[in-house]
Amino acid sequence: IKVADQSQLRTAPAYDFTRDKVDTPLNMANRMQAVVAISGDFCSYWSHQQGGYMVRQGTLYLDKPIKGRDTLLIDDQGNFHIVTDTRDWKIQEVTGAYNIVNSLNFGPGLVVDGVCLDDEYGAEFNQSFENHQRAAICQMGENEYAFAVCEGTWTGESKGLTMKDWAHFLYDLGFQQAYNLDGGNTTALIFHGEKLNEPGN
């Protein structure tokens, strides 16, 4: 996906930040009139259950980074900054150097600055060692991105990928930055109002 301007790369909540309510990615994409869309991260601003560093369209909503989770920060030039424990970056260092417009809190970082990060990552919340549907957002170059999904076992025709296999798959495609999104049964890749990957939930 090559955009003319970084402002075309946008995030959207399920409804708004006054309600703790979910929605399907297809409904969200249609509501936002998105040409192409992908499922994002799970966050709950209203209930503050898990926290996170949450910036949406330039507004900071939550400043409670989750220990052990990688955070994707997207600056006003559309560049990705993946903050990882293994790289020992601090969110404050990145936010002090760049104007952050959006952030995502699911993770992990799969490819950071051209390096595949696959060393024994095993978070339970994303079932790292099991084969599942996966989703990722990647940066290829200036204003050039890729949305990637792999299908799971819903139709019986696909097996899904472990997190390590997913990281290697994206690395082999040559992405400089790749960040894992909330996959599983909410995985969705949408183009012109149509969900392209298998149904899921």
Radius of gyration: 16 Å
Major sheet characteristics: 5 strands, antiparallel
Class by helix and strand content? alpha+beta
Q: Strand-residue fraction?
A: 25-35%
Give the helix tally.
3
Let me know the average pLDDT.
86
Q: Total number of β-strand segments?
A: 13
H/E element order:
HEEEEEHEEEEEHEEE
Q: What order do the strands of the largest sheet run in, or round the barrel if closed?
A: 8-7-11-9-10
Uncertain stretches of 5 or more adjacent residues: none
Share in helix: 10-25%
Shape: globular
Between the first and last Cα atoms, what is the distance in angstroms? Answer: 26 Å
Structure, briefly:
The chain contains three helices and 13 strands; from the N terminus they run H-E-E-E-E-E-H-E-E-E-E-E-H-E-E-E.
How would you describe the overall organization of this protein?
The protein is an alpha+beta fold and 201 residues long. It is 12% helix and 29% strand. The protein is built from three helices and 13 strands. The protein has helices at residues 25-31, 91-97, 163-172, and strands at residues 36-38, 52-56, 59-64, 71-75, 80-83, 100-104, 109-112, 115-116, 134-141, 144-150, 177-180, 189-191, 194-195. The strands form four sheets. It has a five-stranded antiparallel β-sheet with strand order 8-7-11-9-10, with helices on one face. The mean pLDDT is 86.
